[in-house]
Amino acid sequence: MVMASDETTRLLPRPEDGISPGREDNETTGSISRGTGLAIFIAYLGAFLASTDESLVIATYDIIASEFHELSKASWLVTGYNLGYCIALPVYGTLADTLGRQRSMLLGYLVFALGCLISSLSNSMNQLIAGRIISGVGSSGMVVMISIIITDLAAPSEVALLRSYTNVVNMLGRGVGAPLGRVIVNSLGWRWAFTGRLPLIVLCLFLSRVQFPTKPRASTPAAETSKMEKLRSLDYFGIFSFAAAVFTLLLALTTAGTLDGKLSTVYALLGVCALATVAFVCHECLWATKPLVPLRLVTKGVGQYWLVQVVLFSGRCGVTTTITQYLTQVRQM
């Protein structure tokens, strides 16, 4: 007899129920081991750095752009970061299955460090924007790997608690980043706002390389395929079409927000965005063997959650990126 379930039904049966939950007892109950706890702590530190980066630049991008005398491009310091973040976010999920959890995390740290280095050494606004895009690509890997690592390493009874800590770390980073960025920019200069994070990133790289727990895997045909074959199986057309859709959409919105923005240019960019979106959806639904984004989940309740997240983050990002200019230029604060 199958009992009806509601929001109070346990996802995993109790041991006394006599039903095997699909894992060993020591994997579903008990405390987190030292190695697992250290790996999750390293992931938290990476998420903290990524969160501080976002709010730090939002609070100081007008000062940075003024030094290059290109205040009109100031918003691209935030837009470029969000562009790289949005494009790379679904890619890391595929890379985690292809290259492994540890290598994907190391890749995120390396790319983020490269972006910070380029930003700190940039001599023009375009170079700085490129560094911000690269930082966004690395930051997305640092953030998305937390959920994957927690799900893989922690017991199911601890997953919800550890993910709640992830939100705490993200909020703490966003809260600390803005005032810390102002202090660094006013006292040492804006370049140190990017350079100062490099030692922490190197520390995370070292700890991830040395302390990350690994488990032996059974020999399977999929595991024996070469790395090149795994890389060839990536959904490159999906990545390209998704990137084109996101980039043209952001570029259209940025162009429409300028005083001299031409409507014909905006309409052309929106048209390209629509074509890229249609190509992406058709490819993911009809032809992709390993979809970059499994769109079938939209019809299984996840689509509503995606829509809520889009509205939520759009509103939050819109307020945080414009509040500084409003207070300084309109309210003269």
From TrEMBL:
SUPFAM superfamilies linked: MFS general substrate transporter (SSF103473)
GO CC, one annotated term: fungal-type vacuole membrane
Region Disordered: start-end pairs: 1-31
GO molecular function list: basic amino acid transmembrane transporter activity
Biased composition (Basic and acidic residues): 7-26
Major facilitator superfamily (MFS) profile domain segment(s): 39-333
Keywords of this entry: Membrane, Transmembrane, Transmembrane helix
TM helices/strands, residue ranges: 76-93, 105-121, 133-155, 189-207, 236-259, 265-287
Membrane topology designation: Multi-pass membrane protein
Compartment(s) where it occurs, according to its Swiss-Prot or TrEMBL record: Membrane
Principal subcellular localisation of the protein: membrane
Protein name per Swiss-Prot or TrEMBL: MFS general substrate transporter
